[in-house]
Amino acid sequence: MSLSFHIDFNGQCEEAFSFYAEHLGGKIGTMLHVKDSEKIVHANICIDGVEIAGADVDSSRYEKPKGFYVLLGVDSEEKVWSYFNALQHDGHVVLAPQKTFWSPCYAIAIDRFGVPWKLNYVA
């Protein structure tokens, strides 16, 4: 058995996955276009051992992600800052990187694609 999750995008799936590959060290596995279209019918990316799937949906059906965050545990404070700086660019800062009682460095941002992220340095 395997477990992953799927995120709907509003015509930006390929751009988002390329962004995650470049800035979060992800590796794109599949990127399937609708025939004769820029629209993505299915894509997947692996970020630090976690698979995320995604696709573009019709804009009339698109809803911004809500009710969850992608929690990315990293092995350094520098990675929290690097990932946070990339994700918050043209996005929304919920919580700037800071020390918490459970982590030396923790941050929350919603990226420009509407995907909410929590970044946690696991010391």
UniProtKB/TrEMBL annotation:
SUPFAM superfamilies in the record: Glyoxalase/Bleomycin resistance protein/Dihydroxybiphenyl dioxygenase (SSF54593)
Glyoxalase/fosfomycin resistance/dioxygenase domain ranges (all copies): 10-118
InterPro entries, per database record: Glyas_Bleomycin-R_OHBP_Dase, Glyas_Fos-R_dOase_dom
Pfam families according to UniProt: Glyoxalase
Matches recorded under PANTHER family: PROTEIN YJDN, PROTEIN YJDN-RELATED
Name of this chain's protein: VOC family protein
Organism of this sequence: Duganella flavida
